[in-house]
Design goal:
heterodimer, A: about 180 residues, B: about 325 residues, five-stranded antiparallel β-sheet, 9 helices
């Protein structure tokens, strides 16, 4: 489903766009642009997925606040900031451009690798969702949330760390 | 050359504007095929014929309107040279506004676990980001042009103060405990505010409490409480206040009504009985300061005045009663010279 974004975009071109796409030199440029736009759409979807979990986390904090468990609220605030960081980074991540004289050229293969890398982050959304489910349950039953909160913080640190390696994908692919 | 296409964009040179309307006033007649350029930290809400059609993200977008060149020239003649197909674009700044400030415009009265009643002022900073451009434009901006952070700050401040007061009331901690709870209070208030802000299309990204201060009146009451701490309960506190007042008078030479109480006679001479009598009177005055002042001494009136502060801080009397009684006893004090 998430992998078909580029095909969908290609099939959605109107007559004028198809006509222009046949211009010499333009096709390659447009192909790459489509890949970047598809990746941007994917990143936006990922960010929206994490953002949804962030709102749920905020709702849990609200429950904890009303029951006077401020220490737990602070703990979740850490997770909240890490989740916010990940979401913001996804939204503003590099599209994958290279200047004319740059040593590493970004071609279709590199852009596809970037797309696949971002696609791999979908598992992260699910993992975050599972931990937030646990937190939600613990908070509503007035149980200790520290174990789930710590696991969430750790997972988000790992996801942020994974995202740090995004740039490496271009370098690795260009070597092969 | 005849105008065919338009390029609609907002470079945003100021940085304080949350929304920019294109055109700034009236309605635009963007031609079909015109280009809408949206920058990375922006979103553009496109209105056509008065309806918010869509929100455009970063990039270049080709707009479709019924304003077809040549045709609109002919149609325009029927509409006083104006296009009947109106369009507007609201550019929304999606950057995080990190320098927002909040503060209590007037002190908030709270029940304190140690001091009874305190009056506090608080201030801090927060950051926000518009999360739902279409909602924000429809709920906050309306049809106005530029919308700046300053214009929304006062509205948001009122929500913040409400939630802060609510939280401080819920946690019911003493003023002395609050400085170590700034982080907890900040996180708690942010959680409480999240839904309020979301309803406006805004995401509250961070919320910080920089300071929670007691008002001057409360500080005075705290000082007195600290002095009392060395003595004990309220009864002893009143005795302490009376003795304090007499000590001041004695140091001044034992003039005035205190002479009759024997304070001016000097240290050790009949001091015990005289002091007991004066203290007893002062306590009585402290307990019944609302009664009509009779032949009271200056020290007794002063003790009563001092006691009023304590009673206000303890929440025994309202501020209005405090002011009324204070005026009354100050007048009496002035009469006594």
């Amino acid at each position: 489903m998430k992998g078909n974004l580029r095909e969908k975009m290609e099939s959605g071109r109107n007559a004028l766009e198809k006509l222009v796409a046949n211009l010499p030199g333009y096709q390659g440029y447009k192909e790459k642009e489509l890949r970047r736009e598809a990746d941007k759409l994917l990143r936006n979807q990922l960010a929206a997925g994490f953002d949804k979990q962030r709102r749920r986390l905020s709702s849990i904090q609200y429950t904890l606040t009303t029951t006077g468990r401020l220490a737990a609220v602070v703990m979740l605030e850490r997770a909240m900031l890490k989740l916010q960081l990940l979401t913001d980074r996804l939204k503003v991540a590099a599209y994958g451009y290279a200047g004319f004289f740059d040593a590493v050229k970004v071609e279709e293969a590199e852009l596809d690798a970037l797309y696949n890398f971002d696609l791999g982050l979908w598992d992260g959304v699910k993992q975050v969702e599972d931990l937030i489910n646990e937190l939600e349950e613990a908070a509503s039953k007035e149980e200790d949330v520290s174990q789930s909160a710590n696991a969430l913080i750790k997972l988000l640190e790992e996801l942020n760390e994974t995202f740090n390696r995004r740039q490496d994908v271009i370098l690795e692919t260009s070597k092969t | 050359m005849a105008r065919v296409f338009d390029v609609v964009e907002w470079p945003d040179t100021g940085g304080r504007d949350m929304v920019y309307r294109w055109p700034p006033t009236g309605s635009g007649d963007i031609r079909i095929g015109s280009q809408l350029v949206v920058r990375e930290s922006q979103a553009a809400v496109f209105f056509r014929d008065g309806k918010a059609l869509d929100t455009f993200g970063p990039g270049r977008h080709t707009l479709t309107t019924a304003n077809i060149p040549l045709l609109i020239g002919l149609l325009g003649k029927l509409f006083s040279d104006k296009s009947p197909f109106t369009t507007e674009v609201y550019f929304v700044n999606l950057r995080e506004f990190v320098d927002m400030k909040w503060g209590t415009p007037e002190p908030i009265a709270l029940r304190d676990s140690e001091l009874g009643m305190v009056r506090l002022g608080a201030f801090g900073t927060y950051s926000l980001q518009i999360s739902d451009p279409q909602l924000f434009v429809n709920k906050i901006v309306g049809v106005r042009g530029i919308y700046q952070t300053g214009q929304i700050e006062s509205y948001l401040r009122s929500i913040i103060v409400t939630r802060l007061t609510d939280l401080l009331g819920e946690i019911n901690k003493s003023l002395f405990d609050l400085p170590r709870l700034y982080e907890e209070i900040g996180a708690g208030v942010r959680a409480k505010l999240a839904d309020d802000f979301a309803a406006l299309g805004i995401d509250l990204k961070a919320f910080f409490v920089n300071s929670i201060n007691a008002t001057e009146e409360t500080v005075k009451a705290i000082d007195e409480r600290a002095a009392m701490g060395a003595i004990g309960d309220m009864q002893k506190y009143l005795q302490f206040k009376a003795a304090q007042a007499m000590g001041t008078a004695a140091a001044a030479g034992g003039a005035g009504d205190l002479t009759s109480a024997g304070v001016g006679l000097g240290a050790g001479v009949g001091m015990g009985a005289a002091m007991a009598s004066a203290i007893s009177s002062a306590i009585q005055a402290g307990k019944q300061e609302a009664a009509a002042p009779g032949a009271l001494t200056k020290a007794q009136v002063q003790a009563t005045l001092d006691n009023l502060d304590m009673r206000l801080a303890a929440g025994e009397i309202s501020e209005a009663t405090y002011k009324e009684l204070r005026a009354k006893w100050e007048k009496k004090l002035a009469e006594l010279g």
